[in-house]
Amino acid sequence: MHKLSALLALSMVASAALAQSPTLDRIRKTGSITLGYVDGAIPFSYIREAKPEGYSVELCERIAGELRRSLKLAKLETRWKALTIQNRLEAVRKGEVDLECSTTSRTLGRQELVDFSLMTFVDGASVLVRANDRLRVLGDFGGRKIAVISGTTTERAIGKTLEQLRVDAQIVPVKTRAEGLEAVDQGKADGLASDRVALFGVALTSANPAAYRILDDIYSVEPYALALRRGDADFRLAVDRALAGLYREGGIGEIYGKWFGRLGQPSRILEALYLLEGISE
Question: How far is the CA of 74 from the CAs of 32, 91, 268, in angstroms?
């Protein structure tokens, strides 16, 4: 009897939360959700056959599925909006998308603009170089050039590390990883700095993956999360409930294997993330 009462109470709390969220109320009324993605962030978000795909994209699709069930909708239309690394947070802040599904690192500064879900991945910044170059660590880049996407946490991390090491390297700002890789190919840059897994993705999908290698060292910790608008705690709760269920019940293993299987098992820190973020009901 007590167990039944607890379940009923939990159901009433969840229903009340759903009713109090302007985002969920709009999703219920329109029967649609708008999700943002950034192309070129393989294997997290990218376009293949005119459709967004990737690890972060699939997480958002799973969340949309849970929202459809919790809101008791017969159908929920998923609308995808293309964003850039430079405008993604502003698009969330302005309400142009309900969730941003790519490789956004959660920082305190960014939380002044947007809110964030539970963490979805953890990575670190490194540098891709030409395979035949003798560059092994960041300290070897004295007098050389490093391409990095402007406005990213990687740009700040690499700049700070170069300053601490007193390495006189020039930062070459680029808009995308593809542009950065092209700069390396053309000799306009000696390395491309970005999150390590994203560097593996851009190298593996290039015309000649064997032409590159990635430095062993990691120069930052990048905790990814899904960005959403501030001021809607109940929508965030619904998103977190869907993610926590994937982590807690093991569904994340299938998703990880699909997008990162070729890179081997999850790192210990990523396994710990899934464990810690698998919050119980």
Answer: 11, 28, 40
Residue spans of the domains in the chain: they are 2-123+222-277, 125-214
The answer to whether the peptide bond before residue 209 is cis (omega within 30 degrees of 0) is no
Element (H, E) at 125: strand 125-130
pTM for this predicted structure: 0.82
CB hemisphere CA count around 149 (13 angstroms) = 23
Give burial (CB, 10 Å; 0-12/13-18/19+) of 51: exposed
**DSSP assignment string, 213-249:** EE-S-----EEEEEEE-TT-HHHHHHHHHHHHHHHHH
Interacting residues of 249 by C-beta distance below 8 A, sequence separation 6+: none
For domain 125-214, the CATH class is alpha beta
pLDDT on residue 262: 81
Chain segment 85-117, per-residue pLDDT in tens: 999 999 999 999 999 999 999 999 999 999 999
Superfamily of domain 2-123+222-277: Periplasmic binding protein-like II (3.40.190.10)
Amino acid at 276: L
Q: Do domains 2-123+222-277 and 125-214 have the same CATH topology?
A: yes
Q: In the chain, which ranges are continuous DSSP H helix?
A: 2-20, 22-30, 55-70, 88-93, 153-165, 177-185, 196-204, 233-249, 251-260, 268-277
